Amino acid sequence: MTAPLLTIKNLTVTFPTPKGPVEVVRGISFSLGRERLGIVGESGSGKSMTGRSILKLIRPPGRVTADEMVFDGIDLMGLRERRMRELRGARISMVMQDPKFSLNPVMTVGEQIGEALQTHRPMPRRQLRARVLEMLEAVRINEPERVADLYPHEVSGGMGQRVMIAMMLIPEPDLLIADEPTSALDVSVQAQVLDIIDELVRRNGMGLILISHDLGLVARYCDRILVMNGGAIVEECAARDLDKARHPYTRGLLAAMPRMDEDREELPVLDRTAWAAT
Amino acid sequence: MSAVRDWLLDDSPSSRLQASLGRAWRSFSALMRNPLAVAGALIIVVLIVMAVFAPWIAPHSAIGQDLANRLAPPSALHWMGTDELGRDIFSRVVYGSRITLMIVTMVAVISAPIGLLVGAVSGYFGGWTDRVLMGVTDIFLSMPKLILALAFVAALGPGIENAIIAIAITAWPVYARIARAETITFRDSEFIAAVQLQGASSVRVILRHVLPLCASSTIIRVTLDMAGIILTAAGLGFLGLGAQPPLPEWGAMISSGRNFILDQWWVATMPGFAIIAVSLGFCFLGDGLRDVLDPKQRDGR
Amino acid sequence: MAFEPSPADSSARMSAGVMAGQAARGVAGIARFVLVVAATFLGLLAITFFIGRVVPIDPVLAVVGDRATAAVYEAARERMGLDRPLLVQFFSYVGDVLTGNLGQSISTGRAVVDDLGRFFPATLEMATVGILIGVALGVPMGVTAARRQGSWADQVIRVLGLLGYSVPAFWLGLVGLAVFYAGLGWVAGPGRIDIFYEGLVEPVTGIYLIDSLMAGEWEVFWNAASHLLLPASILGFFSLAYIARMTRSFMLDQLSQEYVTTARVKGVPERRVIWRHAFYPIRIQLITVIGLSYASLLEGSVMIETVFSWPGIGRYLTVALLNADMNAVLGATLVIGSVFILINKVSDVLYRILDPRARR
User: Fold this and answer.
1) Taking CB atoms and an 8 Å limit, are A119 and C257 in contact across chains?
2) What is the CATH number assigned to the segment(s) A1-91+174-278?
3) CB contact under 8 A, B147 and C52
4) Is B192 contained in some domain?
5) I need a labelling partner for C255 at 20 to 30 A (CA). Which of A33, C3, C49, C230 fits?
6) Is there a contact between C357 and A153 if contact means CB atoms under 8 Å apart?
7) Dihedral of CA C318/C322/C328/C331: which sign?
8) Is C176 part of the contact surface with chain B (CB cutoff 8 Å)?
9) Which residue segment(s) compose the domain that B263 sits in?
10) What is the ipTM of this complex?
11) Residue A263 carries which DSSP code?
12) Contact with chain B for residue C112, Cβ under 8 A
């Protein structure tokens, strides 16, 4: 494998509180090639903050520090906001959790997708429109002409999230961060949305960071898995080796998952004392 | 001292008194951590002290004329100068605090209970009672307040009592809206049902159980409205419709200083500073109270 | 000086607003909206009627003034129909108002309607320039304060906002005159225009700035503008304080929205993030705020006009008040009240029509 797409060393995110600064991400390091990496953890484990700090979108008073954060040979830490902006969307993009909140309510779907492309590659209206429709088709939307002119409140959650994917992939970025892309959706459309992400990521040969609290889902769609707890990475393994995971937290998470061939009366509850000492 | 504090902050108070004192203490200490609220409270304390002890604080009489010494600029003897009749402006401002305090108190005492009662009755009974009462309230709300007060004073005749009545008439609808909104949120709750099952009359339920629960949001609103009431009262005084000379009402004082504004600026300016200070005081305190007692309404003004 | 509408006003507006929203949807909705507006106007009429006929101990005296002769008194009493039942009196009053009969003013001797028509343009001119100043400065200030929450700019804007609640308009007017007219000589003094220019321009709209431009009289225009600048700026200050405060609060809410982050993820330039993504959705709420502020400027002009001897409705009202000229008082109250209500309701309708979320 050539040089990795993204290398992160000792990334820390700090927020000040009345009781002093709190580290929500505590010195994590990992690297990523053109592969599918899953980050798993409970809410508050720092996984979303990790995603946002790669895009340098932690708003003040939050603070991001890292010994190294290099994307495709570019040092992100030393990058000016202006250059960073050229990178956002165009080369690193992010699908967010809930289309109900993450789509602008007073712009049509088509405008919002178009804007993502237009920002980085200005082009005539007609051509832009064609690209938008093409992209909507790529995320399996049936009547792209009609949907492009709808406002976000007029589309369903599953369709909204496909619009989000279209918007984030239209400039053809190299890395997509998907932050809980399906947790706000009905179970019936979750798999469909993830399949679309998976298909497009493979087709374009991109890197993917899939952030989720759902261990099974991450295991199914990723090559490699990081397990985060309390702002730190507690386990790193290949997806197929998940059942061999050693860290008590990961084991606890695995044990708490229901299975098809279930014969347990009760699902075990995470026993937090097991790793609290570490 | 710390024993008292522990008793106040006890997580499981053993009496109703301890619980309510503890809650009051918590609110109070939260308020004291807000510098603007403290400043506001201080200003209002100063206003009250000035009003109560006016004869001792004021160096001169409020109405005693000294024509030889008229329109004197601010000096060590007359801190804010003298007016066109040689009266000491500082002393008049001090005595004027009594009028201001009386106006805001009277307006609050008249309009808040009316508003509370209308709102609580409207919310508690619902249906047609609600529709009619809120219809009237909304009509009053969509009227320009100052103009309405002016028209009422015109009909009632100038004077401080009529000014108070006119302002109170325009102030109550806001409280009715608030009380109604609050009442509706707990009208169908268990404890109201429990009181009703014990056979309490509607009057008793409203007076003993509904109104006390509307109190905190009404107090916040009244405090925030104080600035507006002071400004309206001063405006009426300025137009010659409120307090009549020689009463040292701040608005009327500005009005009499109007003719000298170009040369003897202090006559009209000084009472204005008093109005601004007191209004700001109520704004600060009201903002602070809202943050402490009712965090969800922040920025809603 | 209720320059700022209270939150309860807005909650009241909301209920009317919901009806206004449906107005965009169907004839039934339009009928309902008209009904609400009509009911509010009827309420205003009921209040002015109440003030004019019920509150005064002797309504006749209140209308003709205490200097009237016995004959005038008797004639007025008969004309007012005070012997008839109150409800009948009210309906005939409503009829009079609807046909434009507001009675005669005892101080000018003319029909109140004519007086109001003559004085209204002056008020309109001042309030309009005032709101333009308030919007032009208040909106950018509010946006800046929200973008730099907690910075010195934010603090300054916060203090300005609180001063807007605490400074008496008439006092600020006097201080303004002392400083900018007498002290610095930057603006012209009280009145609408120097006596020298009076009558030079044929009144068409009654708004001097427009009339002088239409006549091509630049000198008159500049003179009128220099008279207008100070009072309009003071009105503008009060609307600025309110508009900046509301803009700030709306923008803070917007900037924490997830879709603003989405725009940043897409790499959209910051200026476009602020204006297209954060500001654009609130422009409709702002229209309502500006409408309310405009309406309260009409109200605030009563004080400012008195200080600046500005021959508008506000001054007409205060002069009438001091002369106990009840017909004129009630007429002016009615006009200001109607405009106030109308602006309120119209900004509601606009809100409901313009927001795609409310359109469906």
Assistant:
1) no
2) 3.40.50.300
3) no
4) yes
5) C3
6) yes
7) positive
8) no
9) 46-61+78-288
10) 0.85
11) -
12) no
Report the candidate in A75, A38, A17 with the shortest Cα–Cα distance to residue A224: A38
Inter-chain residue contact A105 with C357, CB threshold 8 Å: yes
Q: How far apart are CA A192 and CA B54, in angstroms?
A: 78
Q: Where are the domains of chain A?
A: 1-91+174-278, 99-172
Both tokens of residue C66?
């205490």
Q: Which residue has the tokens 């803070």?
A: C252
Residue-by-residue pLDDT tens, chain B, 301 positions: 677 777 777 777 777 777 778 777 877 777 777 788 888 899 999 999 999 988 888 787 777 777 777 777 888 777 788 887 878 888 888 999 999 999 999 999 999 999 999 999 998 888 888 888 988 888 888 778 888 888 888 888 888 999 999 999 999 999 998 888 888 887 777 888 888 888 888 888 888 888 888 888 888 888 888 998 999 999 999 988 888 888 889 998 998 888 888 888 888 889 999 999 999 999 988 888 887 776 544 444 3
- As for how many domains chain B has, the answer is 1
Please state whether B247 falls in left (phi above 0), alpha (psi between -120 and 50) or beta.
beta
Instruction: Tell me the DSSP string of chain A.
Output: --S-SEEEEEEEEEEEETTEEEEEEEEEEEEE-SSEEEEE--TTSSHHHHHHHHTT-PPTT-EEE-SEEEETTEESTT--HHHHHHHBTTTEEEE-S-HHHHS-TTS-HHHHHHHHHHHHS---HHHHHHHHHHHHHHTT-S-HHHHHTS-GGGS-HHHHHHHHHHHHHTT--SEEEEESTTTTS-HHHHHHHHHHHHHHHHHHT-EEEEEES-HHHHHHH-SEEEEEETTEEEEEEEGGGGGG--SHHHHHHHHTS--TT---SSPPPP-THHHHT-
* Chain B residues closer than 8 Å to C169 by CB: 231, 235
In a domain, B117, yes or no: yes
DSSP B44-57: HHHHHHHHHTHHHH
Read off the tokens for C129.
């320039």
* Position B134 in a domain: yes
Residues of chain A numbered 68-87 and touching chain C (CB < 8 Å): 85-87
Which residue on chain C is closest to B299 by alpha carbon?
C249
How near does any CA of chain C get to the CA of A66, in Å? 20
- Using a CB–CB cutoff of 8 Å, tell me whether C336 touches chain B: yes
Which C residues in the span 144-163 are in contact with B, Cβ-Cβ below 8 Å?
Answer: 162-163
Report yes or no on B93 lying in a domain. yes
User: Per the CB < 8 Å rule, is B146 touching C299?
Assistant: yes
| Touch test A–C: 3 Cβ pairs or more under 8 Å | yes
CA of B56 vs chain C CAs: smallest distance (Å): 28
Q: What is the pTM of this model?
A: 0.82
